[in-house]
Amino acid sequence: MTSETIDAFHRGRFHLVQPKGRGHRAGMDAMLLASLVADDQPCRVADLGAGAGAAGFAVAARLEKAEVTLFEYASEMVDFARRSIALPENTHLADRLTVRRADVTLRAGARAEAGLIDDHFDHVIMNPPYNDAGDRKTPDALKAQAHAMTDDLFEHWIRTAGAILAPGGQISLIARPQSVADIISACGRRFGGMEITLICPRQGENAVRMLVTAIKGSRARLTFRAPLIMHEEDSHAFSAVVDDLNNGRAAYRRNHKTVRSSG
User: Fold this and answer.
1) Contact in structure between 109 and 82 (CB atoms under 8 Å)
2) In b/e form, how buried is each residue of 94-103, taking b as 16+ CB within 10 angstroms?
3) What is the per-residue pLDDT across 81-132, written as a single tens digit (0 to 9) for each?
4) Which Gene3D superfamilies match (predicted)?
Protein backbone atom coordinates (compact mmCIF):
# COMPACT_ATOMS: atom_id res chain seq x y z
CA MET A 1 0.00 0.00 0.00
CA THR A 2 1.11 3.55 -0.69
CA SER A 3 2.58 5.10 2.46
CA GLU A 4 2.60 8.67 1.14
CA THR A 5 0.75 11.02 -1.14
CA ILE A 6 1.56 14.06 -3.26
CA ASP A 7 -1.04 16.71 -2.53
CA ALA A 8 -1.82 20.00 -4.29
CA PHE A 9 -2.39 23.23 -2.37
CA HIS A 10 -3.38 26.75 -3.43
CA ARG A 11 -5.19 25.27 -6.46
CA GLY A 12 -2.01 23.58 -7.68
CA ARG A 13 0.49 26.39 -7.04
CA PHE A 14 2.55 24.00 -4.93
CA HIS A 15 2.58 20.33 -3.97
CA LEU A 16 3.65 18.43 -0.85
CA VAL A 17 4.84 14.89 -0.23
CA GLN A 18 3.03 13.77 2.93
CA PRO A 19 2.66 10.57 4.96
CA LYS A 20 -0.54 8.63 4.34
CA GLY A 21 -2.52 7.20 7.23
CA ARG A 22 -0.02 8.37 9.84
CA GLY A 23 1.80 11.46 11.00
CA HIS A 24 0.45 14.98 10.69
CA ARG A 25 -1.14 15.91 7.36
CA ALA A 26 -1.44 19.59 6.54
CA GLY A 27 -4.77 21.31 6.10
CA MET A 28 -6.63 24.51 6.86
CA ASP A 29 -4.55 25.39 9.95
CA ALA A 30 -1.34 25.64 7.90
CA MET A 31 -2.99 27.74 5.19
CA LEU A 32 -4.50 30.20 7.68
CA LEU A 33 -1.15 30.46 9.46
CA ALA A 34 0.58 31.28 6.16
CA SER A 35 -1.99 33.98 5.43
CA LEU A 36 -0.75 35.97 8.43
CA VAL A 37 2.47 36.87 6.61
CA ALA A 38 1.66 40.02 4.62
CA ASP A 39 4.88 41.61 3.41
CA ASP A 40 5.57 43.37 0.11
CA GLN A 41 9.31 43.67 0.77
CA PRO A 42 11.98 40.99 0.40
CA CYS A 43 11.82 39.10 3.68
CA ARG A 44 13.22 36.12 5.56
CA VAL A 45 10.64 33.77 7.07
CA ALA A 46 11.25 31.00 9.62
CA ASP A 47 8.65 28.22 9.91
CA LEU A 48 9.16 26.58 13.32
CA GLY A 49 7.99 22.98 13.64
CA ALA A 50 7.34 22.99 9.91
CA GLY A 51 6.42 19.34 9.45
CA ALA A 52 6.33 18.63 5.72
CA GLY A 53 6.46 22.38 5.14
CA ALA A 54 2.88 23.31 4.21
CA ALA A 55 2.76 26.75 5.85
CA GLY A 56 6.22 27.75 4.68
CA PHE A 57 5.48 26.58 1.14
CA ALA A 58 2.23 28.56 1.19
CA VAL A 59 4.08 31.74 2.17
CA ALA A 60 6.66 31.25 -0.59
CA ALA A 61 3.94 30.52 -3.16
CA ARG A 62 2.06 33.74 -2.38
CA LEU A 63 4.99 36.08 -1.71
CA GLU A 64 7.55 36.02 -4.52
CA LYS A 65 10.11 38.01 -2.47
CA ALA A 66 10.02 35.73 0.57
CA GLU A 67 12.87 33.36 1.45
CA VAL A 68 11.60 30.63 3.77
CA THR A 69 13.54 28.32 6.09
CA LEU A 70 11.66 25.28 7.39
CA PHE A 71 12.82 24.12 10.84
CA GLU A 72 11.68 20.64 11.84
CA TYR A 73 13.00 18.13 14.39
CA ALA A 74 11.46 14.84 13.20
CA SER A 75 13.87 13.34 10.66
CA GLU A 76 11.09 11.68 8.67
CA MET A 77 9.20 14.95 8.26
CA VAL A 78 12.43 16.72 7.26
CA ASP A 79 12.79 14.13 4.50
CA PHE A 80 9.22 14.78 3.32
CA ALA A 81 9.93 18.52 3.18
CA ARG A 82 13.16 18.06 1.22
CA ARG A 83 11.49 15.73 -1.24
CA SER A 84 8.65 18.24 -1.63
CA ILE A 85 11.13 20.96 -2.59
CA ALA A 86 12.60 18.60 -5.20
CA LEU A 87 9.24 17.95 -6.90
CA PRO A 88 9.08 19.22 -10.49
CA GLU A 89 5.81 20.97 -9.60
CA ASN A 90 7.74 23.12 -7.09
CA THR A 91 10.65 24.18 -9.30
CA HIS A 92 9.48 27.80 -9.25
CA LEU A 93 9.80 27.85 -5.44
CA ALA A 94 12.84 25.65 -4.84
CA ASP A 95 15.51 28.35 -4.70
CA ARG A 96 13.59 30.23 -1.97
CA LEU A 97 13.01 27.26 0.34
CA THR A 98 15.51 25.68 2.75
CA VAL A 99 15.03 22.84 5.23
CA ARG A 100 16.98 22.56 8.49
CA ARG A 101 16.66 19.78 11.06
CA ALA A 102 16.61 21.60 14.39
CA ASP A 103 15.16 21.53 17.87
CA VAL A 104 13.45 24.92 18.11
CA THR A 105 13.89 24.94 21.91
CA LEU A 106 17.70 25.17 21.70
CA ARG A 107 19.47 28.09 23.35
CA ALA A 108 22.35 30.44 22.55
CA GLY A 109 25.23 28.92 20.56
CA ALA A 110 23.50 25.60 19.93
CA ARG A 111 20.52 27.45 18.53
CA ALA A 112 22.70 29.49 16.15
CA GLU A 113 24.55 26.36 14.98
CA ALA A 114 21.18 24.87 14.02
CA GLY A 115 20.50 27.86 11.76
CA LEU A 116 18.31 29.71 14.24
CA ILE A 117 20.34 32.92 14.04
CA ASP A 118 19.67 35.84 16.36
CA ASP A 119 18.00 38.95 14.86
CA HIS A 120 17.95 37.33 11.41
CA PHE A 121 14.33 36.77 10.36
CA ASP A 122 11.58 39.25 9.49
CA HIS A 123 8.78 36.77 10.21
CA VAL A 124 8.45 33.67 12.36
CA ILE A 125 5.43 31.42 11.89
CA MET A 126 4.48 28.47 14.04
CA ASN A 127 1.75 25.89 14.51
CA PRO A 128 2.92 24.35 17.82
CA PRO A 129 1.69 21.00 19.15
CA TYR A 130 -1.73 21.61 20.67
CA ASN A 131 -2.90 18.46 22.47
CA ASP A 132 -2.79 18.75 26.25
CA ALA A 133 -2.32 16.06 28.86
CA GLY A 134 -6.04 15.35 29.07
CA ASP A 135 -6.46 14.56 25.38
CA ARG A 136 -6.75 10.99 24.12
CA LYS A 137 -3.35 9.70 23.05
CA THR A 138 -2.84 8.61 19.44
CA PRO A 139 -1.03 5.29 18.79
CA ASP A 140 0.68 6.96 15.82
CA ALA A 141 4.14 7.93 17.14
CA LEU A 142 4.83 10.39 14.32
CA LYS A 143 1.51 12.15 14.85
CA ALA A 144 1.97 12.13 18.64
CA GLN A 145 5.30 13.91 18.24
CA ALA A 146 3.64 16.61 16.13
CA HIS A 147 0.65 17.07 18.45
CA ALA A 148 1.94 16.54 22.00
CA MET A 149 2.12 19.66 24.16
CA THR A 150 4.32 20.25 27.20
CA ASP A 151 3.53 22.72 29.99
CA ASP A 152 6.23 25.17 28.93
CA LEU A 153 5.97 24.70 25.16
CA PHE A 154 4.88 28.23 24.30
CA GLU A 155 7.55 29.75 26.54
CA HIS A 156 10.29 27.80 24.74
CA TRP A 157 9.00 28.33 21.20
CA ILE A 158 8.19 32.02 21.66
CA ARG A 159 11.54 32.60 23.38
CA THR A 160 13.25 31.27 20.25
CA ALA A 161 11.04 33.41 18.01
CA GLY A 162 11.98 36.47 20.05
CA ALA A 163 15.68 35.68 19.68
CA ILE A 164 15.76 35.04 15.93
CA LEU A 165 13.43 37.85 14.84
CA ALA A 166 14.92 41.19 13.87
CA PRO A 167 13.60 44.21 15.81
CA GLY A 168 10.16 45.02 14.44
CA GLY A 169 9.76 41.48 13.12
CA GLN A 170 6.43 39.67 13.35
CA ILE A 171 5.55 36.43 15.10
CA SER A 172 2.46 34.62 13.77
CA LEU A 173 0.87 31.50 15.17
CA ILE A 174 -2.28 29.42 15.19
CA ALA A 175 -3.38 27.62 18.36
CA ARG A 176 -6.33 26.53 20.45
CA PRO A 177 -8.19 29.32 22.26
CA GLN A 178 -7.49 27.54 25.55
CA SER A 179 -3.80 28.47 25.14
CA VAL A 180 -4.39 32.23 25.08
CA ALA A 181 -3.07 32.84 28.61
CA ASP A 182 0.10 30.83 27.98
CA ILE A 183 0.76 32.69 24.73
CA ILE A 184 0.23 36.14 26.25
CA SER A 185 2.50 35.21 29.16
CA ALA A 186 5.24 33.85 26.88
CA CYS A 187 5.16 36.96 24.70
CA GLY A 188 5.65 39.06 27.83
CA ARG A 189 7.93 42.00 27.13
CA ARG A 190 9.37 40.36 24.03
CA PHE A 191 6.39 41.28 21.86
CA GLY A 192 3.67 43.90 21.76
CA GLY A 193 0.88 44.99 19.49
CA MET A 194 -0.63 41.52 19.81
CA GLU A 195 -3.70 40.90 17.64
CA ILE A 196 -5.89 37.87 18.36
CA THR A 197 -8.61 36.57 16.06
CA LEU A 198 -10.91 33.74 17.17
CA ILE A 199 -11.89 31.25 14.45
CA CYS A 200 -15.48 30.00 14.73
CA PRO A 201 -17.03 27.26 12.61
CA ARG A 202 -20.27 29.24 12.20
CA GLN A 203 -21.88 32.37 13.53
CA GLY A 204 -22.85 31.82 17.17
CA GLU A 205 -20.59 28.77 17.64
CA ASN A 206 -17.62 28.61 19.98
CA ALA A 207 -14.12 29.22 18.63
CA VAL A 208 -12.01 26.18 17.74
CA ARG A 209 -8.75 27.97 16.86
CA MET A 210 -7.24 31.41 17.13
CA LEU A 211 -4.79 33.40 15.03
CA VAL A 212 -2.19 35.49 16.86
CA THR A 213 0.31 38.04 15.59
CA ALA A 214 2.65 40.32 17.53
CA ILE A 215 5.65 42.55 16.86
CA LYS A 216 9.08 42.23 18.47
CA GLY A 217 9.85 45.23 20.63
CA SER A 218 6.45 46.88 20.18
CA ARG A 219 4.78 48.51 23.16
CA ALA A 220 1.34 48.69 21.56
CA ARG A 221 -1.57 47.15 23.46
CA LEU A 222 -3.37 43.88 22.76
CA THR A 223 -6.33 43.88 20.35
CA PHE A 224 -9.07 41.26 19.99
CA ARG A 225 -10.26 41.38 16.39
CA ALA A 226 -13.65 40.41 15.03
CA PRO A 227 -14.02 36.60 14.82
CA LEU A 228 -13.27 34.83 11.57
CA ILE A 229 -16.30 32.72 10.58
CA MET A 230 -15.39 29.61 8.60
CA HIS A 231 -18.74 28.63 7.08
CA GLU A 232 -21.91 30.39 6.07
CA GLU A 233 -25.01 29.40 8.04
CA ASP A 234 -26.32 25.89 7.21
CA SER A 235 -23.48 25.30 4.75
CA HIS A 236 -20.24 23.30 4.71
CA ALA A 237 -18.72 25.61 2.10
CA PHE A 238 -16.09 28.06 3.29
CA SER A 239 -16.97 31.72 3.42
CA ALA A 240 -15.51 33.80 0.59
CA VAL A 241 -12.92 35.39 2.89
CA VAL A 242 -11.75 32.06 4.31
CA ASP A 243 -11.65 30.46 0.86
CA ASP A 244 -9.37 33.25 -0.35
CA LEU A 245 -7.06 32.80 2.65
CA ASN A 246 -7.04 29.01 2.26
CA ASN A 247 -6.08 29.19 -1.41
CA GLY A 248 -3.44 31.90 -1.19
CA ARG A 249 -5.44 34.58 -2.96
CA ALA A 250 -5.28 36.97 0.00
CA ALA A 251 -3.38 37.70 3.20
CA TYR A 252 -4.96 38.21 6.60
CA ARG A 253 -3.37 41.58 7.29
CA ARG A 254 -2.92 43.12 10.70
CA ASN A 255 -5.19 45.98 11.68
CA HIS A 256 -2.17 48.03 12.70
CA LYS A 257 0.44 48.00 9.96
CA THR A 258 4.03 47.84 11.15
CA VAL A 259 6.71 49.38 8.96
CA ARG A 260 10.01 47.54 9.35
CA SER A 261 13.37 48.50 7.92
CA SER A 262 14.44 46.62 4.80
CA GLY A 263 17.69 44.72 4.47
Assistant:
1) no
2) eebbbbebbe
3) 999 999 999 999 999 999 999 999 999 999 999 999 999 999 999 999 865 5
4) Vaccinia Virus protein VP39
